[in-house]
C-alpha cells in the first residue's frame, strides 16, 4: 500500500483574515456560497462576482480562532482584499492580509484524509496550530492544510504523509476537471455555471442575495449553459492556455485553459461535444473526457 503524499500548494496561495462581530454577515452578502453553514468542522469554497454575475475571485473559507481565513490566489490576494473592502461600509469587520504568517499544503492519495481524522468533502479540523480540511469541491482531490509558516511539512509528516511533487496533485486536479482560479476562469468574463461551481459545491441556491446572484440564478433556471469546462487529453504538444479548440471545418469549439503534459482543461461548446468528430488546438488533437460529477441538465 502506498503512502499518501504532500506538497506545497502552487502557484502560491494568499490568506486574508476577516475579523469582527459582523464577519459572517458581511461575507454572506457578498459571495456565492452559504457562509452561515461554516463551522470549525466545515470549510467552504465560494466565489466573489461582479454585479453582472461574472467571475472575479474564488477562495476557500475556514473558521479559525475567532476569525475567518480566506485562502485564495497569492498573486491576486491584494486585489481580493481591495474589492472586499469596498463593501465594508459600517460593518464591524477588519480585513487583513496575513499571507506572510501562513503556508498552504496539499495532501492526496489513499489515507490522506484519514491521517487528519477527516472523512467527507469540506470536513475540517484544527491541526498543529493551523487548520486542515478535505477539499470542499471534490474529496478525491485530498486535503488542504493552512499552517503557521514553517510548520506544514512537519505536521503532515507526523501524520504519516510523505513528501511528493506538486505535479502529482496537479495531474489529479486536471484529470478530474476541477478549475484553479484565474488559470481556468477569466476575471470579469467567466460565469460560474460553465465552470462547475454548481456541481463542485461552490454555489448555494437557498441563501439570500449576494453580488451577481441574479445572473447566476437566471443562467441555471433558464438553461442558458452552452459551454462547459472539462478535462481533455492532448495528443501532441500541449497548447498554450487561451489556444482555440477547433472542429475539422475550422469552426470554433472551445478554448484551452490550464494544462500539464498530456492533460488540460478546456472550455468546450456542448454542441461540439455532442457532434463528436476530431477537435484540435495548436496542431494537437484534443479529446474531451466528461467527468463523472458533471451534470448536463
How is this fold's topology laid out?
Layout: E1 5-8, E2 13-19, H1 23-28, E3 44-49, E4 55-64, E5 67-73, H2 77-85, E6 94-97, E7 102-108, H3 112-115, E8 124-127, E9 130-134, E10 143-148, H4 152-158, E11 162-163, H5 166-176, H6 213-221, E12 227-235, E13 244-246, E14 252-260, E15 263-269, H7 270-275, E16 279-281, E17 284-288
Parallel strand pairs: 1-11
Antiparallel strand pairs: 1-7, 2-5, 2-6, 3-4, 4-5, 7-10, 8-9, 9-10, 12-15, 12-17, 13-14, 14-15, 16-17
Keywords:
297 residues, alpha+beta, Gyrase A, domain 2, Elongation Factor Tu (Ef-tu), domain 3, 2 domains, six-stranded mixed beta sheet, 7 helices, 17 strands, 18% helix
Walk me through the structure:
This protein is of the alpha+beta class and 297 residues long. Strand 16 (279-281) and strand 17 form a beta hairpin. The mean pLDDT is 97. The N and C termini lie far apart (39 Å). The chain contains 7 helices and 17 strands. 45% of the residues are buried. Strands 8-9-10-7-1-11 form a 6-stranded mixed beta sheet, covered by helices on one side. Strands 13-14-15-12-17-16 form a 6-stranded antiparallel beta sheet. It folds into 2 domains: 5-176, Gyrase A, domain 2; 226-291, Elongation Factor Tu (Ef-tu), domain 3.
Amino acid at each position: 500500500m502506498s503512502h499518501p503524499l504532500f506538497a506545497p500548494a502552487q502557484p502560491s496561495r494568499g490568506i486574508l483574515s476577516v475579523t469582527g462581530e459582523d464577519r459572517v454577515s458581511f461575507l454572506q452578502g457578498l459571495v456565492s456560497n452559504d457562509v452561515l453553514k461554516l463551522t470549525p468542522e466545515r470549510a467552504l469554497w465560494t466565489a466573489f462576482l461582479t454585479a453582472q454575475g461574472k467571475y472575479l475571485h474564488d477562495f476557500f473559507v475556514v473558521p479559525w480562532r475567532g476569525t475567518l481565513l480566506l485562502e485564495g490566489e497569492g498573486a491576486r490576494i491584494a486585489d481580493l482584499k481591495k474589492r472586499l473592502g469596498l463593501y465594508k461600509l459600517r460593518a464591524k469587520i477588519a480585513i487583513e492580509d496575513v499571507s506572510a504568517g501562513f503556508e498552504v499544503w496539499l495532501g492526496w492519495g489513499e489515507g490522506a484524509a484519514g491521517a487528519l481524522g477527516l472523512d467527507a468533502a469540506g470536513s475540517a479540523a484544527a491541526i498543529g496550530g493551523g487548520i486542515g480540511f478535505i477539499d470542499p469541491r471534490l474529496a478525491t482531490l485530498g486535503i488542504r492544510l493552512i499552517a503557521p509558516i514553517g510548520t506544514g511539512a512537519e505536521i503532515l509528516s507526523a501524520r504519516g504523509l510523505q513528501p511528493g511533487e506538486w505535479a502529482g496533485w496537479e495531474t489529479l486536479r486536471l484529470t478530474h476537471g476541477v478549475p484553479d482560479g484565474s488559470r481556468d476562469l477569466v476575471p470579469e468574463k467567466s460565469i460560474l455555471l460553465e465552470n462547475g461551481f454548481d456541481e463542485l459545491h461552490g454555489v448555494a441556491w437557498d441563501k439570500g442575495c449576494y453580488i451577481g446572484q441574479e445572473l447566476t440564478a437566471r443562467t441555471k433556471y433558464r438553461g442558458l449553459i452552452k459551454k462547459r469546462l472539462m478535462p481533455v487529453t492532448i495528443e501532441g504538444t500541449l497548447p498554450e492556455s487561451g489556444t482555440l479548440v477547433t472542429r475539422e471545418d475550422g469552426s470554433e469549439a472551445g478554448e484551452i485553459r490550464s494544462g500539464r503534459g498530456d492533460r488540460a482543461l478546456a472550455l468546450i461548446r456542448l454542441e461540439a461535444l455532442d457532434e463528436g468528430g476530431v477537435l484540435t488546438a495548436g496542431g494537437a488533437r484534443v479529446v474531451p473526457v466528461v467527468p463523472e460529477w458533471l451534470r448536463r441538465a
